[in-house]
Amino acid sequence: MTSNPPSQSPPPTLSPAAAAAALRWLVDSGADVLTGSGGGSWLQPPYRMPDPKPGAGTPAADRAPPPPPPPPATAVQARTLADLRSEAEARTFAVRRPDAPLVFADGNPESGVMIVGEAPGGEEERQGRPFAGPAGQLLDKMLAAIELDRSRVYITNLSLWRPAANRVPNAAEAAELLPFLHRHIALVRPRLMLLVGGTSAKALMKTPSGIMRLRGRWHDIEVEGHSYPALPTFHPAYLLREPAQKRLAWQDLLAFRSRLRTV
């Protein structure tokens, strides 16, 4: 007598919101490449994903178009921070929503310490200053832990406006925003920079690597003929979602404090 194999239930289907959250978690964790494009079993020889067959996969009509090429560099004329604010207000950017208020900066531009985040959120937009919401409250605690506060740092974001749906700027938007951030850095002339979040770190370092690979290591950011030491670390919003990563963030903060005492 032979028994029939037990029937297998179909795999669970994620809702669009759950799928987006899972993808966001993977990106924040540093996953930026796929291991393969086809199905297969890792438990059977040859222990690798099979090569895709020619023409297999998503039909061409359903494939997402490639991302647009980065726009040409924007010449920024500002000679002071006040000029930079005015010039940003007068420009049109792809990431800028109609009538979106500018969220320029907070803190002390003479402090020698510059913190660069990704983009303001809803609370930042309402208050008109970066890191004003729950992530900002955590950032303040992180700074206090290494004997800093907003009077001893200068804080801004890659994007000076909140993108639609509270997302981060995409690669094309980041390329358009980068000349303004470069000019911002050149005007402030910080001794050290702390890059919080993968979007700002990737844009300034011109790399596709995720924050998991970038964090905890010093990099030199070249801006207008000068080099600025920068340390990437996790964004506070990510730490609120993944508190277990605070251990690594604390290591980054200690490294930042140690170097700050020598410059």
Automatic annotation (TrEMBL):
<dbReference type="Pfam" id="PF03167">
    <property type="entry name" value="UDG"/>
</dbReference>
<comment type="similarity">
    <text>Belongs to the uracil-DNA glycosylase (UDG) superfamily. Type 4 (UDGa) family.</text>
</comment>
<keyword id="KW-0408">Iron</keyword>
<dbReference type="InterPro" id="IPR036895">
    <property type="entry name" value="Uracil-DNA_glycosylase-like_sf"/>
</dbReference>
<feature type="domain" description="Uracil-DNA glycosylase-like">
    <location>
        <begin position="104"/>
        <end position="254"/>
    </location>
</feature>
<keyword id="KW-0227">DNA damage</keyword>
<dbReference type="GO" id="GO:0051539">
    <property type="term" value="F:4 iron, 4 sulfur cluster binding"/>
</dbReference>
<dbReference type="InterPro" id="IPR005122">
    <property type="entry name" value="Uracil-DNA_glycosylase-like"/>
</dbReference>
<protein>
    <recommendedName>
        <fullName>Type-4 uracil-DNA glycosylase</fullName>
        <ecNumber>3.2.2.27</ecNumber>
    </recommendedName>
</protein>
<keyword id="KW-0411">Iron-sulfur</keyword>
<dbReference type="GO" id="GO:0046872">
    <property type="term" value="F:metal ion binding"/>
</dbReference>
<dbReference type="GO" id="GO:0006281">
    <property type="term" value="P:DNA repair"/>
</dbReference>
<keyword id="KW-0234">DNA repair</keyword>
<keyword id="KW-0004">4Fe-4S</keyword>
<feature type="region of interest" description="Disordered">
    <location>
        <begin position="31"/>
        <end position="75"/>
    </location>
</feature>
<keyword id="KW-0378">Hydrolase</keyword>
<feature type="compositionally biased region" description="Pro residues">
    <location>
        <begin position="64"/>
        <end position="73"/>
    </location>
</feature>
<dbReference type="InterPro" id="IPR005273">
    <property type="entry name" value="Ura-DNA_glyco_family4"/>
</dbReference>
<dbReference type="InterPro" id="IPR051536">
    <property type="entry name" value="UDG_Type-4/5"/>
</dbReference>
<keyword id="KW-0479">Metal-binding</keyword>
<dbReference type="GO" id="GO:0004844">
    <property type="term" value="F:uracil DNA N-glycosylase activity"/>
</dbReference>
<feature type="compositionally biased region" description="Low complexity">
    <location>
        <begin position="54"/>
        <end position="63"/>
    </location>
</feature>
